[in-house]
């Protein structure tokens, strides 16, 4: 199996190195990742300027850095390294659950693989005061990859709690949008704003947010077809 690894935290993220060390037990790796952090860039592609790619070996793995977005990295990597089977993205330093997956560069990189006819898996874990304990997560990452590689899931969004107790198949939590705008001022008294997230307390059982709050690894199978079939049927029937 030929794997392309990407992320949105940048080529030097410890999450990418952790993913590479587990993924290398499943197949051959190529790593193509942004040269600087590109979190929350969604599925943006760079269309108004050319992008560069430079060799940057990581822990002995073939790796390249790109001055572009996560999606640029996958588009370029799949084009340059032939016969890629699966795109893995992460491990993101921060969860990607609920409405956040619309903004996530981590998921977008995996989704680009699916758009190109390959399989895509996005992997994320929360960060607290300290970096995630990737050694503790390692067996869970291996278990999830084994499970997904053996399945026919085309696109999966996986989130690891810091200390998992099990794995659950989930759906995306969509009942609450967790983004918020926080105003502040610069040293001259002028307005500035943080676009950030707030904690959502309401938990709907079976969702990605519910699983994470209950210390389960959350696997959400996704599709790239955004069509609302129920509405479409209704409107066509008039
Ligand atoms: Mn990120």
Describe the protein's architecture and organization.
- There is one protein chain.
- The chain has 238 residues and is of the alpha/beta class.
- It has a single domain (2-173, 203-225), classed as Stationary-phase Survival Protein Sure Homolog, Chain: A.
- The chain has 6 helices and 11 strands.
- It has helices at residues 14-23, 70-80, 105-115, 134-149, 208-213, 229-237; strands at residues 2-6, 28-34, 53-55, 63-66, 86-93, 119-125, 155-159, 166-169, 179-185, 191-197, 216-221.
- The strands form 2 sheets. The protein has a 9-stranded mixed beta sheet with strand order 3-4-2-1-5-6-7-11-8, with helices on both faces. A two-stranded antiparallel ribbon has the order 9-10.
- Helix 1 (14-23) packs across helix 4 (134-149).
- The longest helix has 16 residues, at 134-149.
- The protein is globular and about 45 Å long.
- The termini are far apart.
- The structure holds manganese (II) ion.
Summarize the entry for a quick read:
With 238 residues, this protein is of the alpha/beta class. The model has no long low-confidence stretch (mean pLDDT 96).
């Amino acid at each position: 199996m030929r794997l392309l690894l990407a992320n949105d935290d940048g080529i030097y993220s410890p999450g990418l190195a952790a993913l590479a060390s587990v993924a290398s037990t499943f197949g051959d790796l190529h790593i193509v990742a942004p040269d600087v952090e590109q979190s929350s860039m969604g599925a943006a592609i760079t269309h108004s300027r050319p992008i560069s790619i430079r060799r940057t070996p990581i822990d002995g793995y073939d790796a390249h850095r790109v001055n572009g977005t996560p999606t640029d990295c996958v588009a370029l990597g799949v084009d340059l390294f032939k016969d890629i089977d699966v795109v893995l993205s992460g491990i993101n330093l921060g969860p990607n659950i609920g409405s956040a997956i619309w903004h996530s560069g981590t998921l977008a990189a995996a989704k680009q693989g699916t758009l190109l006819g390959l399989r895509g898996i996005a992997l994320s874990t929360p960060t607290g005061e300290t970096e995630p304990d990737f050694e503790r997560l390692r067996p869970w990452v291996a278990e999830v990859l084994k499970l997904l590689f053996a399945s026919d899931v085309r696109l999966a969004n996986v989130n690891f709690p810091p200390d998992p107790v099990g794995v659950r198949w989930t759906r995306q939590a969509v009942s609450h949008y967790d983004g918020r705008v926080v105003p502040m001022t610069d040293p001259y008294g002028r307005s500035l704003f943080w676009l950030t997230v707030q904690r959502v307390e309401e938990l709907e059982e079976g969702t990605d947010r519910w699983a994470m709050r209950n210390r389960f690894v959350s696997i959400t199978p996704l599709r790239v077809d955004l069509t609302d079939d129920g509405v479409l049927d209704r409107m066509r029937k008039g």
